[in-house]
Amino acid sequence: MSDPNPNPDHEAERVGRWLEQEDRLARLLGMELVAVTPGACQVRMAVRSDMLNAVGLTHGGATYALADFAFAVASNSHGTVAVALTTQMSYPAASRLGDTLIAEAREVSRGERTGLYAIEVRTAKGKLVGHFSGTVFRRGEPIAQWMKPTNPGDKS
Description:
Layout lengths: L7 H15 L1 H5 L3 E6 L2 E7 L13 H17 L3 E11 L9 E11 L3 E10 L4 E15 L14
Antiparallel strand pairs: 1-2, 2-4, 3-6, 4-5, 5-6
Helix pairs in contact: 1-3
């Protein structure tokens, strides 16, 4: 039986770890959830050779995917399903093969139905390589209803 009033930090951790396991793209790209608290998180990813663009820099899509996953974890960490309405990404500098990218998400504003989030992506040495902002719509349904065990026969 689930606790009707779970500890917010525990709930954020539970949701974050579930998203880390169930987000197929995050797993494919090797993203690791470092920390999560209500409305915030830190996620890291090592830049691999299959993440480079034609000129040997980290593909913007890989950096975006990391920021977007951090956005998802932070915005869903309160236990209510949150889906993106709009996002924007800027790339002030490049990262390269072997860099570890760290995305830090923070909640800027949280309303009953919408939320605004800011995510910075930096190399492990602190260089800013991505600035992401996003707005979510809170669907009003508990994320716990999605956290049921998956059907072992489901190959999707």
